[in-house]
């Protein structure tokens, strides 16, 4: 995505890395297993969250389409427990080719970059990558995005309805303020949505 390629040349990476994953993910930490598990981090950016998750003994596949961000992540967070993949929603074809299914699928600040048609496709793909009983955890942005990157309005209700149609059922929703000061000042808020994959719906 060109907007992120361009941003990577500025202070974007520094700003992203300055965010505490523990703080950012606190609303959904209870849904991440205590025991080691397999996690897919979709749109992993610089690998900030992937690195934090591996510090908790999890193994992570980090799917990031932007070369500059993925390469920065590989340099900043070298770990044998992070497998980097050049991939993006809605298809995640390279990730699918790995032949793995995940206990947790994380989408942090990704959903706003997909239009509604792609979101419906993406939910079916995400279900196929989630083990029965596993969870898809996503943040849904409310408010304007950066003018240099495509941002589409999203709402929780549509996402929940489309997810249910493919066997992902909402089990938690938490509304939060933005942790980035400039977004907070611009009135950006987020909804953390947790969807559980129910058996028999693959």
Give an overview in words.
This protein has 202 residues and is α/β, with parallel strands linked by helices. It contains nine helices and seven strands. Strand 4, helix 7 and strand 5 (130-142) form a beta-alpha-beta unit. The model has no long low-confidence stretch (mean pLDDT 89).
Rounded to the nearest angstrom, the radius of gyration is 16 Å
| Main β sheet profile | 7 strands, mixed
Distance between the termini: 30 Å
Number of helices: 9
Whole-number average pLDDT?
A: 89
Which percent band covers the strand fraction? 25-35%
Cross-sheet strand order for the largest sheet: 3-2-1-4-5-7-6
What are the segments in which pLDDT stays under 50 over at least 5 consecutive residues? none
Question: Quick one: how many beta strands?
Answer: 7
Helix percentage range: 25-40%
The dominant shape is globular
> Which structural class fits the helix and strand makeup?
alpha/beta
H/E element sequence: HHHEHEHEHEHEHEHE
């Amino acid at each position: 995505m060109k907007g992120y390629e361009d941003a990577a040349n500025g202070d974007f990476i520094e700003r992203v890395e300055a965010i505490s994953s523990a703080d950012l993910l606190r609303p959904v930490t209870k849904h991440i297993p205590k025991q080691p598990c397999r996690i897919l981090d979709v749109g992993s950016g610089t690998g900030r969250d992937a690195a934090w998750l591996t510090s908790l003994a999890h193994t992570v596949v980090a799917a990031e389409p932007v070369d500059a961000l993925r390469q920065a992540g590989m340099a900043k967070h070298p770990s044998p427990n992070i497998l980097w993949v050049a991939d993006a929603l809605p298809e995640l074809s390279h990730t699918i080719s790995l032949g793995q299914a995940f206990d947790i699928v994380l989408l942090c600040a990704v959903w706003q970059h997909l239009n509604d048609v792609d979101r419906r496709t993406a939910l079916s793909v995400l279900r196929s990558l989630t083990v029965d009983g596993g969870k898809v955890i996503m943040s849904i942005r409310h408010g304007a995005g950066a003018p240099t990157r495509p941002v589409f309005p999203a709402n929780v209700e549509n996402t929940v309805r489309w997810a249910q149609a493919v066997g992902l059922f909402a089990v938690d929703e938490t509304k939060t303020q933005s942790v980035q000061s400039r977004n907070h000042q611009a009135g950006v808020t987020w909804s953390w949505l947790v969807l559980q994959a129910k058996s028999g719906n693959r």
